[in-house]
Amino acid sequence: MLANLSAVPSTESAGLESAxxxxxxVRVALDVPLPGLFDYSCKAAVAIGQRVIVPFGRRxxxxxxxxxxxxxxxxxxxxxxxxxxxxxxxxxxxxxLALMEFASRYYQRPLGEVMMPALPPPLRKVSAYTGxxxxxxxxxxxxxxxxxxxxxxxxxxxxxxxxAPALNAEQREAVERIAAVQGHGVVLVxxxxxxxxxxxxxxxxxxxxxxxxxxxFLVPEINLTPQLEQALRRRFPRGDNEHDTLAxxxxxxxxGERLQAWLAAFNGQxxxxxxxxxxxxxxxxxxxxxxxxxxxxxxxxxxxxLRYSARDLAVWRGYNxxxxxxxxxxxxSLESWNHAQQGRYACVTLAHRARDxxxxxxxxxxxxxxxxxxxxxxxxxxxxxxxxxAGEQVLVFINRRGYAPVLNCSSCGWVSQCSRCTAYxxxxxxxxxxxxxxxxxxxxxxxxxxxxTCGDQDLKPMGRGTQRIEEFLSERFPExxxxxxxxxxxxxxxxxxxxxxxxxxGEVDILVGTQMVAKGHDFANLGLVGVLNAxxxxxxxxxxxxxxxxxxxxxxxxxxGRHRAGGEVILQTDYPEQxxxxxxxxxxxxxxxxxxxxxRESLGLPPFAYQALLVAxxxxxxxxxxFLDTARKLPEGAPQSYPRQDQIxxxxxxxxxxxxxxxxxxxxxxxxxxxxxxxxxxxxxxxHDLFQAGREARVRYSLEVDxxxx
Length: 710
Hints:
Helix content is 30%, strand content 23%. The protein is α/β, with parallel strands linked by helices. It has four domains: 147 residues, 3-Layer(aba) Sandwich (GIY-YIG endonuclease), CATH 3.40.1440.60; 182 residues, Rossmann fold (3-Layer(aba) Sandwich), CATH 3.40.50; 183 residues, Rossmann fold, CATH 3.40.50; 96 residues, 2-Layer Sandwich (Alpha-Beta Plaits). The strands form six sheets. The chain has a seven-stranded parallel β-sheet, with helices on both faces. The longest helix is centred in the last third of the chain and has 22 residues. About 2% of the residues have low confidence.
């Protein structure tokens, strides 16, 4: 419903009409890149947590009322009047408002830029409440559509829940540890791949649902939701109770689908909410448990706008609302593992697979003295042939999409370069020919007929991506059914789900994939995993690269031999003696974590230090560096505003590794401290000063707290 305040409807009661003219003051959070909140006058009483439409500059915006001041921050006659109060929803609950305020404070973003994007798009668009087609607002329109749908013949309901499999001793202990948490507590479930972590989650969720509470279940990627959604619907089928539905929420949904799922959770109709990172900001009135699967995954970190970590917000939300939080992974993040080692998190280990099947054998193939055939060693090709002959499936993992990373002229050394970025363009092939694409700015260009520098027509692709691997395997194994799963082959809605379904149904013999296939999927007939090009991550500049490499390879290795003995992983490398590979060969996460944490502690790196990253963007690199240098000197100009400056380290500004993206030059400045409170105190003042400095310098900048990549 929309209440128009500029022309209040007449009432039969003169007293009510008089009361309606009384002015109230509201403090509103708006999704605008400006610090602070904005005061307005209002002719009707409004509750905190209610949305309003207000004028802002020359446009109207939907904002959130966050305070009802007795006296506005400016003179009352200077206030603009709210246009309408949106009462199609109850006010947002206090727990949700507290979560938004914490995220705003911790990640140093204006409250409006946190609150409003957390809502489904229809609830924050003025156009959804105005015009002839907006009668009743998006909530009422959705209710009418759902009522019409309910009037149609219903599809048959699932007759009953399938029987839960019996738990082994390790799984029972994990469920008991979760159930023993009174109020808030974090339980880290470290389970080897195939150890039955999902069953632990489902049993823990069952106990919460039986108490009439809600469960929030987070997964890192959209393509993991279909398989888990099916498992949840089979275990907890929809019946006649209004509180037994499952809602699924992620960015791949349409606006209407997202609004429907959000409302089901908000109204308490959905007893379970399954979603990606954006689901962490969904209000749940009866929240009783938060589960974060694959908690180590970097996909939980938002990389634009509010750069939050959904895992970290889940931990804070559990603390604030007094509910347990379960973090699960075969390779926990070093931050979470360190918390467990220090006793801040409870920890339970699932050291054995749920089925009586051993972990796959890990074989390192030293490729330094081998002649490779399109990147494949003879050992891997022979093993693939044996598995295919035995009727088993094979997964070839290479974390590089496209046909080849670069196009090269052997005569003069020319390589395909993006004209807008300091990066190479990747060669892609399709039915109607080939093209070059930049994976940073997205720009595409036709493949040149000849070298632009010397005119030589013999241009050759260098390196291999998933498309080239797929092409080679089609020639090498002509009888095999091959499927490729990467960001290109799954661009259309529903395509990833269809491809994974084909693999599960045995319609694929060889699966070629990127990190999309590395986690969460239970391939019953997969006997062999071959890993190509793993060394590319081994010497990356980011200090977290070894941790990511170990987690990625451990996850993809875990796809092999989950249902039958004899699973095998063949990893090709030029550096088999590296500690990452040695620990991987032994399936020794604890050994790797111990080595990595000791190294981090000796170097003063997270989790033994706390960081923030300031990135500046400008048409000229010198201008970005100049702004960062100014930012670095800000504390010197007002030392009284930075009382804990001695606990802060400000590094020199440096260009990013990929300096130019879409004709914008980028540089970064790292801030570090061994005290989280000291860093937060510094950032609160610094971000305030940065706003004015940024306006004067005319550069775009972003401040990221707890950056995942430097």
